[in-house]
Amino acid sequence: MNSFFINGKEINPPLILAPMAGLSEKILRITLFEMKFVGFAVTELVPAEGILRKTLKIENYLNKSDVDFTALQLCGGNPLRVFEAASLASELGVKFIDINMGCPVNKIVKAGGGAALLKDPQKAALMVEKISKNLKITVSCKIRSGFDEKNINFLEIGKLLEESGASMVAIHPRTRSQMYHGRAEWDHIAELKRALKIPVLGNGDIITPEDAKKMAEKTKCDGIMIGRGAVKNPFLFKQIKSLFENGYYEEVTFQEKLNFLILHFQNLMKELSKENSLHFMKVFVGKYTKGMVESAKLRQSLSLVKDPEELLLKVLDFKNEFEKNFFKEN
Ligand SMILES: Cc1cc2nc3c(=O)[nH]c(=O)nc-3n(C[C@H](O)[C@H](O)[C@H](O)COP(=O)(O)O)c2cc1C
What's the pLDDT at 291? Predict the structure, then answer.
């Protein structure tokens, strides 16, 4: 799979961390960039109203160190308000804005944002046009196939977004009604890719490197965006790259996984407050250690830990114990 360009910027590898509320946080992204696993990433959705009313701070979502390859995902139902939030972001040095046109959550849809925009393609297009015409910022959009199975309109909306100045479109080919049920309809990715000139990212149900290869072959998408599979196994990106480049990939060892976890946790402790780093460490320890021998005990022992340093020490002990047993057995 070749790299691709958005507004002259090369995305290499063409693998993208999907926006995921509560998971695709800035330190995970920094760590993935440090490992050269991804070429681009999108923050979790950030309500434009929150930014404008100052209840949310852009700096909490996006670091100076990753603005070059990360899009701030804005969410809202009012083109003017989304534009104002994008202007603020631009003043802070943000270079990429992604507009959320797929969130299925009721509260967001009721406010006219997220997947509600699929029902109003003209409004969605206006949002993109206002930003792309008036700000020095690159705009992309993340869409679904349509609002429900009677309203599958990804082609109409994709073309409108391109005409309005979007530089890239990512499609998660499920409808809003499907939420996360059923299979992602990869044929929609292929159709959208054939219809647009701008890069199209394929998203949905990539759990193994083989899935990524199948998606690339079937859809010819420019890049692959991965969500849930990436937080279960951040090495998925490396494995996909290897499968594309060499025709094979190595299984990830528990040791490699633990090393990644430790790097991620050290980065969290360096960058975030004690409270926030502890929160994310507890979230990610659950994801990363699932399936490891004796890891349920580790997770249990961490539930009462109140200090990030203590949590890291327990993980290091777990790693040492794991290695001792590993070398005994081999
Ligand atoms: C916990 C969680 C949070 C999500 N948050 C967002 C979000 O903030 N913005 C967005 O566009 N999509 C969000 N998504 C959707 C993902 O970006 C992605 O489209 C979806 O999970 C399908 O891809 P996957 O099969 O690789 O996970 C979220 C998904 C999950 C599971």
Answer: 81
Atom of ligand 1 nearest to the CA of 44: 8
Is residue 221 part of the annotated active site? The answer reads no
Hey, which bits of 123-218 come out as E strands? 138-146, 168-175, 200-203
* Domains assigned to the chain: 4-246 (3.20.20.70), 254-329 (1.10.1200)
pLDDT band at 322 (very low <50, low <70, confident <90, very high): confident
d(CA 267, CA 272): 8
**Which protein residue's CA is at the shortest distance from atom 3 of ligand 1?**
20
Pocket of ligand 1 (CB under 6 A): 18-21, 23, 44-45, 73, 100, 102-103, 142, 172, 203-206, 226-229
Q: Is 252 left (phi over 0), alpha (psi -120 to 50) or beta?
A: beta
With 0.90 as the threshold, say if the pTM is over it.
Answer: yes
pLDDT, one tens digit per residue, over 229-247 is 999 999 999 999 999 999 9
